[in-house]
Every structure is written in C-alpha cells, then in structure tokens.
Write a structure and sequence with these properties.
Layout (H helix, E strand, L loop, with lengths): L52 E3 L49 H4 L3 H13 L34 E4 L21 H4 L14 H4 L9 H6 L46 H4 L5 H6 L14 H12 L3 E3 L15 E3 L9 E3 L3 E3 L2 H7 L4 E4 L14 E2 L21 E3 L4 E3 L6 E3 L21 H4 L2 E5 L15 E7 L2 H5 L2 H12 L15 E7 L3 E5 L8 E5 L15 E2 H18 L11 H14 L3 E7 L35 H12 L1 E7 L7 H4 L10 E3 L5 H17 L2 E11 L3 E7 L3 E2 L5 E7 L4 E7 L9 E10 L5 E13 L2 H6 L3 H15 L5 H23 L8 E4 L5 H9 L2 H4 L6 H11 L4 H8 L2 E4 L26 E5 L4 E5 L5 H8 L20 H16 L6 E5 L5 H5 L14 H16 L1
Bound molecules: zinc ion (ZN).
Zinc ion binds next to loops.
Membrane topology: Peripheral membrane protein
Family: Belongs to the SEC23/SEC24 family. SEC24 subfamily.
GO cellular component, one term: cytosol
Amino acid sequence: MSQQGYVATPPYSQAQPGMGGYPAGFGSSPAQPLYGHYGGQPQSFPAPPTGLMKPVSSPSGMPPPEVSSQYGSNIQQNGAHPQRYPAPPAAAAASPYGQPPNSPYHTIAPQAPAQQLTNQMGSMNLGYGPGPMQNPQASPTSPPAQQPFQTAPPPTMGQTTLGPPPTGPHSPQMAPPQSPLAGPSMGGHPSMGGHPSMGGHPSMGGHPSMGGHPPMGGMGRPVPGPPPPGSGGFQQPGPGAAGQPGYPQQPQGQFGGQMAGPGMAGPGMAGPFQGGAAHMSGPPQKKLDPDSIPSTTQVTEDDQAKRGGQVYTTNLRGQVPPLVTTDFTVQDQGNASPRFMRCTTYSFPCTADLAKQCQVPLGAIIKPFATVPKNETPLYFVNHGETGPIRCNRCKAYMCPYMQFIDGGRRYQCGFCNCVNEVPAFYFQHLDHMGRRVDLYERPELSLGSYEFEATLDYCKNNKPASPPAYIFMIDVSYANIKSGLVRLICEELKTLLDNLPREDGAESSTVKVGFVTYNKILHFYNVKSALAQPQMMVVSDTAEMFVPLLDGFLVNFQESRAVINNLLDQIPDMFADTNESETVFAPVIQAGVEALKTAECSGKLFIFHSSIPTAEAPGKLKNRDDKKLINTEKEKTLFQPQKGVYEQLSKDCVSQGCSVDLFLFPSQYVDLATMGDVPTHTGGSIFKYSNFQVEMDGEHFLSDLRKDVEKAIGFDAIMRVRTSTGFRATNFFGAIHMNNTTDVEMAAVDCDKAVTVEFKHDDKLSEETGALMQCALLYTTVNGQRRLRIHNLSLNCSAQLSELYKSCETDALINFFAKSAYRAMLNQPLKTVREILVNQTAHMLACYRKNCSSPSAASQLILPDAMKVFPVYLNSLMKTGPLVGSADLSTDDRAHQRLIATAMGVEDTQLLLYPRLIPLHNMDVASDVVPAPVRCSEERLTDAGMFLLENGRSLFLWLGQACPPELVQRVFNVPSFAHLPADLSSLPVLDNPQSKKLRSIIDSLLDQRPSAMKLLIVKQKDRSEMLFRQHLVEDKGPYGGASYMDFLCYVHCEIRQVLT
Ligand SMILES: [Zn+2]
C-alpha cells in the first residue's frame, strides 16, 4: 500500500530554497531583482542574416502609406488606466460594490466552524442520512462534535450507506435502509433518497427521533433501532456459498472475466477476482439494482435544486461552495470565488498524522483567469502609486483581508506569518470599536477575496515597462497542408479573425501585435510594415541556428498594416500551391518565434499549424518511436516521455521570454505528440489535434477552436506564488507550467481556461482557531502591456476531527487532483502500478472514514461519506481514460494528447470529461428553453426508440436508436427514417421546425460554454462508429478495458474491507 501517492518530486521535508527567508524569486522584496532569468543581459541581436531576401511577387502593388510607429500610440501608460474602483464613499453603508456593511468575514471566522458546518451538514446529509444505528452508547443528546475523535465512534454525519437492494418498491436511488430520516417506511419513497426539498422539510425536524436535538447532534445522530430487513450490504453470500467469503455476488459475467480485462489486470486488481471462473459457471445470481448505487446525475441535480440560482457569498471560512455543475452567482465577501479557487476539502486536518491517516489529498485547483459571468462584479483594480502594493515584510504576502490591524491602526499582523508590520503613513486609517479599519469597505484589498494591484517597475523585467504582447502565426506550408486546403482556410480566416484580438475592457482596438511565418524545411518571414506596398519575404534556410532576419516590420499592428497583411494572406496559398516539399522542421519554428519576441522585447504567443512529424535535418528532428508492443509492459511509460534535449531547452527559453506556444496539429499518422506537445504544455499553451483533416468535415471545428483560442482572455509572462499561513505549504504543482525552483510557478501565458492544481502538505500543526489561509498572487502582463498583480485569497477551516474533513470534501476537485497526479505518475511508473495506487488510495480514504467517522456496522455494508459518494464512479472513469487504460486499440498520439490537455484542466473540465452528460432528446419539451435533465452514462439508459446527446467537453455525439420515430428523424435530419440516414453524417441540417431548432440551440449553447469546440458525430445504434460513443458510457464496462461502475464499487468495497482487517 503506498503511503506516498505518486509524488515523484523530493519529499517536502527536504530543505527548499525560498522557505527560510524567502530569499529569491517572486517573494523577494521589490528592491532586489525579481526573477532569476530576468536578471540576465538582454540577448543581443544575432549576426546578420545569411538567408536570401526577396520581395514577394505581388500582382498589384499598393502605394505605400505613411510610415508610422508600430508601438508608440498604443502603449497605454500604467497611470492612465482608468481605475475601476469607485471613489470611497462617505459611509461604509454605501459600499460601492454591494458589500453588506455588517458582514465582516473576519469577525465571523473565529466562531464560524460550528455554525457553518452545521449548515453544511444540514444541506448535505439529508439525502442519504446517517449510517447504521448500531451504537448502543450513542446518546441522542450528546453533541457529536465534542466527542473525542477515537474513543467513541462518532456519529455518521452525511454519509452514504450502501445497503442491500430495496426490497419494497424500487427507489430510483440508493435506499438508506438504516437511516432514521429514511427508514424502511421512507426508503421506498421514490424521491426520498435525494429529494432536494428535504433540507427544509418541516416534518424532518419533527421526526420523533430528532426532537430537541442540537442541530449538530440531531443531523448526524443515528437513532438506535433495529436494522430494517434485508440489511447486510450487497447481497452477501453466507460462508460456504459460492465465491469468496464476504464478496458480494453479482450476476454472472459481471465479475471475474471482466475485472481481469486489460484495463484492470494486475496483481492488485485481479487478486480479489481470482474466483471469477467459478462464478462464471454458476447460475445467475440476483442482480443488484443499478439504481441503488450513488448517481452522479442525481447528486448534480440535487445540488442544482438546493443551491442553484442562488447567490453564494464568500464571507465564511471553510465554506463548501456549490458544485461546479450548479448554476449560481458569486458575491465576493472576503474569499476568492470558487471559479478562481476550489479545494479538495474545506477543512484541513490539524496534523500531518491525520492527513496521512486519511490519505485525502489536500489540494487547491486555481484558475487565476477564470471567466467571471456578466452578472458578477469584475475584479477591482487597486493602485497604490509609486510605492506599489503593501506587503508583509517577512513573508511578502500582499495586503488582504487576513491582515489584522492593531495598535490603533498603526500596525498590522500578517495572517500568514504573524509578523507585525508598520502601516505606511499614506495607508494609515483609524479603527472602529470592533478593531476594523473604518475604510474597510472602501478598499478591495481589505474586504475582498480577489482583486488586482498595479505593479510598479520593480515587478517588470529589467525594471522596464512591459510592452504589449505579440501573436505570431506560423503556418506549415508543406505538401499535406497545401493539398488539404488547410493553408487557404487559415489565411482566409485570419483576415477577419485578427479584428478580434484580445483587448482591454473598453479599448477600441487591440494593442496585440501580429507577425507571420510560413515554413516547411526552411522558414519564411514576412515584412508587413504598413509603409510597404506589398509584403516582403525573407527566407532562412539554416535552421540549425535560428534567427529573425528582420528587425522592423515583422511584428506590426494589424489595424495599421491591414492592407499589407491581407495582401500577404491572399498570396500565401498560391505561393506554395505547387510545392512538393513534404518534410518539415518544428523546433526551429518555435525557436524563431522566441527570437522574434526577444528582439521585440515583448511576450506573446505562437500559433503553429503543423501537419507531420518533423523529420527534416534540423534541431529537434524526430523519428517514429511508436511501438504498440510496449503497451502493458514496464516500458509503456516511455511512449509518453518526451524526447529531451532540444525541446526541454526550448521550453525554458520560451518561459523566460513569456512566449506561449499553441499547437494545431493536422496529422495523418503518428507525430510523436508526447514530444511535440512538450513545449505547449510547459508554456501555458494548448494542443489541438485534427486527425486526417478534411476541410469539409473538420474545417468548422478547427476554425471554432482557432477563434476561441485567439480571442480568449489571457495574461502573459506570468509568475505565480501560493503563500500559506504557518503549518502547511504548497509542495507540488500540476499544470501547463514551468518551475525553476520549488515555489515560483512560471507560466509564459495563462488564459481563462488554464488551471494549476496545487498540493499542500503540513510542516507543523494547524490551529482550529486560525484555520488555513492561502493567498495566490499572480504577476502578469495584460494584453495591453500593463504589469499587474492578481490576488486570490481563500480561508479554510482546520479540525482535529476527520469527520469534518470528510464532510467538507469536494469530489469534483478531488478527481481533478487524482487525474493530474496519475497522469504525471504514468511518466515514471507502469500503468498497472498507477492504477493500483489509485484504487489503494481510494480504498484507504474510504476505509479511514468507515473506521473513524461512521458508526459500527456490518462489514458487508459499504459506507461512503456523503460528500464523496460518487467519487468511485469518477475514479473508475479516470482509470478507463485513454492514457491509463493501456489498450493497443487506441492511438499513442491520442493517448498522449489526452494526457497533456488534462494537465491544465480546471475542475469543471475534469468533471465533465470523467462524467459526460447524456441528454435524452426524444421526449424534449420544444416549448421550453430547458435542456432535458441528463441521465446516467450507461447503456441501460439508452432506448431503441430514443435520441441522445452525449458530450464531455472534448467530444459531442448524437446517438440514434434503431427504432427512433420516423417523424423525429424527419424533423431533425430531413430524411424519412433511421434507415435513410447517411453513414458519414456530421452536421445537422437547418430546418424550420421546433425539434430541429431546439436541438440545434442546445448544441450551440453547449459549444458556447466549453473551452474548445467539439465536432458533432452522429452515431447510429449498432453502427461501427458506436464504439467511439460507447467508451463514454462510463458506468459500463469499458470497450478498451476497465470495469463497470457496479463491479468497481464492489471491488473497492473488498479493498476497504482488506484495509480494515
Ligand atoms: Zn507575513
């Protein structure tokens, strides 16, 4: 059993630079050089070009417009930025950003835990209720929170008991047979299991067993009483029955053979199923009702019903936010919105021992640029002028709501390191009778969880103001891309797309500069200076030492150079129309982009449109190393390890220049994506892949991705630091990031969809009173070229009771953490080991809950914490994803691609990826705007007469049953019946009827919400293409290996029992 998880980095107890006195990097005082890599000498311009220089032939020259500066007029000076934060009002009551004056989070915080957790419990445990009631000593009146942790079994607060299949009328959900809230008489009620309105149901409080309870005790207190008939967990064969003792029997075929499939094979996995063969030959056993195991769709629906449409105020420490799938509005009152930061649990254990005991990872998923919906307040901007932001002298934390003002307001104590600091004279303010500054609500940095600071020159590279970033479009013009029509498609699109480059709110046009390169074995740079009559091409054929052959005119303002650029974009497809060149280079292309940005002294992004594995003689040349024979061997990991050397160095160069790389791949065969994707995934970039690209079939998909990618909100040349209060710290980081030391997270760029997952470890005891505070500070350059600091603060609770941790868990955040750590671990360990660790850790987490937080009950019962009850379905789905499943039927590049893109995903994205939405459409109400409620991702939910939409944020399917009503087929596809549907249909006709309109509007709204575009695949039941669809039915046995949800749950149950014995 692994105690260490996957962490491949050195244990955090090792001495780390930056911890003692925070000597280096981001944390240093502004007077010192801020970045190691910034301190170096500016790179001198390389030797004169050795390439040719020739004008691009142009049929019609244009008169040169007046020469104008490319930069000057568009640089917005820092001071000129309009301050969004309104002038301080006279009274706090008139708080400009809607802050209720009487809800200071910090006065609530100290007593918050009990109250808010009561609230949490109230909202969390009613669905499934307490566990079994077999603790005779449990007194209904003693508040459980006061019970010592291990001396008496604490009550089961908000836990899920997996009982036997209901014997009465079938509940659509798991029936909690032993719950006082849903005992036998209630268990049969079809909606009791998770009915959203139960939380406030008046009859709940009046339940005989509940009367007179304190809220804490009442909620979770098991009521003594006989277990209902049929208790005993999954159908448990008695001793001597067929199968292993204690192993729940399943219908024939559900065990054994399936579990030992390629996805699950391995000592740890196969062990408990060794008797499978015996099962296989036996008679079918009673089948466990699939409705009785915890349902993600139900959990999602319940949370939406309970918390959807509400305002979530962030004034309480340790408050668990609504699920990512729930539609809610955030009001920042002192903690960062969950859109920016989500945690695996909102109550950290007080000691490292407890953390180790429960094995629940302590993590935060930080999406610093998350999109803020229009109905929420955008981040306020704070400018402290020349002095810059106020920071703690010792730990360098930024001024925030966790600073405690003392001494009449003359000093403040840092909430992170406890250092007492002087308040600068200009910042002095009196305190009120509560000890709060009277200007509390006039200053975002004192009252909000998230805000931005103006960064002074001290925070700029070489102490020089930053420049607006540049976007360089680099188009592979080799034979494949010309022939497919891709080059023409890109060039046409850019003519209009460049009008939509990101710009500062309210700015008339973008200050982002643009540049163009085409390449195959050699590179062509273009001078598109507005003064030119026509663009000029400069060729660099020596790719070994890449340089940019022109200083002026390569990076230009699109508005100013529009005519020349459009001229160029018109010519490019024709210039290479007759090319025979099929070989390409790749690393020199990136190198050229970095050099161009260096020369221009700016950050930026490269958009590379590439078709094939770079085999031309040049640095970074790759060869085909795909080998399916390695699958399920010790060496499988090598398929995912990038080729080092050139690409590693390139990543470093890119990051130090603030050069992000987005890669659009159009391969027709293996391209070694693991290596080609290495630079993008270390520079905050994205990788898009369109295999066997055809303009007609895939053009729109690609263009939608490109548009989203070019237009999205983004920051450049970013460096992030996560500070914590004493007793714990950030030790491990996952994301499209680069790290030169153990604390500074460097991102050449970070956009609105990129998240960094952070793991925390204890280095001392945490105090229940002060909680666990974290501050994420991101220094970056805006699309306008301004240097800014974006601060996100979050406060969590700490508890010596593990039950608090389990109650405050967030399954969606947990699975994000597990996915990223497993995908990293597979670079160093065999997949089998990684999968074993995943299962072991899951079993440990759940066993620890069982042992320490739930009432004693029959070992045959699977008891899950309420907040984690659907964790197993996500984990099982994770193990069936392409990267982890180990199947020779999947392309190595696809697996590498999935692995790399998941690395930077936020919680919303991993949630959807691992539990897709399956939406029934055949019964939709066309008169309503509502999207039909999703159903469980299982074949059992499909109906022959049905039509279903399935999406996971990456793929989008429309599945049609063979018996789909002809009228519906006619209305949606304009063909008379299922049989008339063409096999390769990939889009829906635009028809003027309610069904067609509604379906297309559902699809459009889905596409609109997702970070990347999805190509619609229309799948007919029993067609060959159904396999692609079926791998997303994550509750079923995986077509490439991996267990069904039901089998997996039984297996985990077994593992839990092993841990407990
Ligand atoms: Zn401090």
